[in-house]
Fold this sequence. Notes:
- The structure is a single chain.
- By secondary structure, the chain is mostly helical.
- Helices cover 76% and strands 0% of the residues.
- It contains 4 helices and no strands.
- Helix 1 runs antiparallel to helix 2 (55-65).
- The longest helix has 32 residues, at 22-53.
- The termini are far apart.
Amino acid sequence: MADVNRGNRPLSPHLQIYRPEFTSITSILTRITGNALLLGALLVVWWLLAAASGPEYFAIADGVITSWFGDLVMLLSVWALWYHALAGVRHLIWDTGRGLDLKDAESLAYLVIGGSFVLTLVTIVLV
């Protein structure tokens, strides 16, 4: 049966009305970092394939990956890796039924963000 009252129903909240919560932003960022890691991995795979192809092609790939753009992509990939891993641990904690109230969820979100930056700095210093 057709919905004759379709025009009178309220619409979903728009971004102008709905204010995203901090925990939802960190959850969205988890998905974004997961996809961004694919781009960094593709760059590394291209570099390895170029190394196997020959010195001329490797020089091109090595020039890209050691340029300021390549350094930036690798730095952001390290941060994305740590962020994504820590967010995965946060989800594992939630899967046990712990940390689901708002205060604990926000604390875990701050720990994930702070921990990702600290671990990125540690990685840069040690490597």
